[in-house]
Amino acid sequence: MAAGYQVPDVPALVDQAREGRPRAVARLISLVESGAPQLREVMAALAPLTGNAYVVGLTGSPGVGKSTTTSALVTAYRRAGRRVGVLAVDPSSPFSGGALLGDRIRMSDHASDPGVYIRSMATRGHLGGLAWAAPQAVRVLDAAGCEVILVETVGVGQSEVEIAAQADTSVVLLAPGMGDGIQAAKAGILEIGDVFVVNKADRDGADATVRELGHMLGLGEARRPGDWRPPVVRTVAARAEGVDEVVAALEKHRAWMEERGVLADRRRRRAAGEVETIALTALRARIGDLRGDQRLGALAERVARGELDPYAAADDLVAGVTGGA
Amino acid sequence: MAAGYQVPDVPALVDQAREGRPRAVARLISLVESGAPQLREVMAALAPLTGNAYVVGLTGSPGVGKSTTTSALVTAYRRAGRRVGVLAVDPSSPFSGGALLGDRIRMSDHASDPGVYIRSMATRGHLGGLAWAAPQAVRVLDAAGCEVILVETVGVGQSEVEIAAQADTSVVLLAPGMGDGIQAAKAGILEIGDVFVVNKADRDGADATVRELGHMLGLGEARRPGDWRPPVVRTVAARAEGVDEVVAALEKHRAWMEERGVLADRRRRRAAGEVETIALTALRARIGDLRGDQRLGALAERVARGELDPYAAADDLVAGVTGGA
Questions:
Q1: Separation between Cα atoms, residue B231 and residue A76, nearest integer Å
Q2: Residue from B32, B291, B311 to probe the interface with A (highest A Cβ count within 10 Å)
Q3: Residues of chain B neighbouring A44 (CB-CB closer than 8 A)
Q4: Which of B127, B270, B275 sits opposite A313 (nearest CB)?
Q5: Are A142 and A28 in contact (CB under 8 A)?
Q6: Is the pLDDT reported for residue A172 higher than 80?
Q7: Whether residues A226 and A125 fall in one domain
Q8: Is B17 helix (H, G, I), strand (E, B) or coil?
């Protein structure tokens, strides 16, 4: 079966993905992840099929039980008859593409369910790549008919927080006795949470974590009437306890957003971020091309010698990119 | 004394900074940090005066004793008659500009020494700003006649690691009993260290930390003859123990780099990074201008509706920036 590289038939793949065929979905995500030459063709073909999925971001420090919670949410949504996509973004993983072993084990309940598509993305140490590829993979799952897409990220880096924040609804997970959780929350995760989950709520310290979290959320700016007040839900995801309450909180947030036009707003903002990232990547690549031309190298040499200041050098570089002066 | 904003007389400030007058240095760094209209004029005036300072980056997790070590290094360099600049970059600090209280206390030994200039930079949550402003502040200190510039960063974020890596010599600090230190090291700090310091070496576990570190350094790729082998120095910075050994290691590294042309190489690379960052910031600002024009907003709306794919939208945005199509 050692066939050569075959140019993918994008329209056929898109048709197959729409029918929910997992191999076609996998192939499309791989094309998107790898920045294949067909990337633009894929994105153009997918565009009219997107905009139907409800995208939920889940983030939290390692050890809070993100994968277990995600898996329990998948079960709950499947019981309600929804098609579900899972995108697990793991910046620390050395694996590129494909599913991670840990996820595979935790997600094995769903492995034979054709209504669930699970994909892990590693970032290969390239944070820009992560911010760039995740929304595109969400588009593939959306176009493939997933009604709910769960995007699971480790909430430690700025980039992961940004991905979670780009969801329609952001779920922040904490666990008792993890000072880290609250620390991470302090570092910016708190602001992005629409729903908070204290998992492993049967453990000592759960009350304290819920209390501390409530306190920190209360410390935020005063809310106006009608503002969303992020609920704190207790779960023991390993035993599926509290998971229906999480789903209820998600649906409530979704309804609240739809009522007020917040959902459309968020999606516009998400699209804007996506477009801007792609545009900046393109401009950066043009600068990279100039580096290949040794234009940047020559400028840097002059800056290092004090013959030129870095702003004047940057002007030169920008002019090379924009075709100016 | 509530005077209105005065347009700074850049040539006069630069002259005063060259004479080592701290208020002029402070003013120039503030201009650079704030992105004042005179920024380009400042950088152009400074360029011919730069390239003389030896820039040492110090990084490590919170609690390893970075400020204490920096202060002890300042004392050692001052004893040798060198003019010293200190730039403390603290991404977590809510203070903008000016010195941090903690640093002020630790650095108070040097407060009345005209041969030392100390400056703290906060990042105000804007990481791009940090990467951008730090090298410019280094230029000011360099032009002001600092022979050694110590750039102290908290080695937790990618951006801080990058700043440390941009130094002529990067010092990575660890302390015994801090699993975090080694963890951070694993996460990329290890690769950037030219000199490793195990501070608080009188504490339990110092031997284990030195051993573990030596082990990890040994696990790196095999070195060719003549390659730099990063030394591990033990210090108790609070009692100035081992600090002369750190200075000796720094001077040895500097000599090694000069012999092999590595120093010039690093400075060219630093300048290239600086120029590229400024150029990208300028291009990003142009995209931001388009956002102001609602061009991005209109494109995002169409992407959110599925009428346009994000790549086609990005093409449109890039064309707007580069004057193309």
A1: 55
A2: B311
A3: 309, 311-312
A4: B275
A5: no
A6: yes
A7: yes
A8: helix
Could you count the other beta carbons within 10 Å of the beta carbon of residue A121? 28
* Co-location of B191 and B288 in the same domain: no
**A33 in a domain, yes or no?**
no
Other C-beta atoms within 10 Å of B297: how many? 15
Whole-model pTM? Answer: 0.66
Nearest-CA neighbor of A132 among A241, A284, A293, A264?
A284
Nearest to B301 among A268, A280, A324 (CB): A268
Domain holding A202, by residue range, is 51-260
Identify from B28, B46, B309, B321 which residue to disrupt to test chain A contact, counting A C-beta atoms within 10 A and taking the largest count: B309
Which one, of B134, B143, B148, lies nearest residue B32 by Cα?
Answer: B134
Alpha carbons B166 and A164: distance in angstroms, whole number? 31
The reply to whether residue A271 touches residue B44, judged by beta carbons under 8 angstroms, is no
| Close Cβ partners of A1 (under 8 Å, ≥ 6 residues apart) | none
How high is the mean pLDDT of chain B?
Answer: 81
H-assigned helices in chain A: 10-18, 22-34, 39-46, 66-79, 101-106, 127-143, 158-165, 179-184, 190-192, 206-219, 243-260, 262-292, 295-304, 310-322
Identify the pLDDT of residue B287.
75
Q: What is the pLDDT of residue A127?
A: 40
What pLDDT sits at residue B136? 86
Question: What ipTM, to 2 d.p.?
Answer: 0.77
A8 in a structural domain: no
In a domain, A127, yes or no: yes
Question: Do B84 and B112 belong to one domain?
Answer: yes
In a shared domain, residues A246 and A281:
no
CB under 8 Å to B258, separation ≥6 — which residues? none
Same domain, B107 and B208: yes
Q: What is the Cα–Cα distance from B154 to A187, expressed in whole angstroms? A: 15
Q: Are residues B159 and B67 in the same domain?
A: yes
* Structural domain total, chain B: 2
Look at residues B12, B100, B250, B317 and name the one whose alpha carbon lies nearest to residue A279: B317
Whether residue B207 is found in the same domain as residue B245 = yes
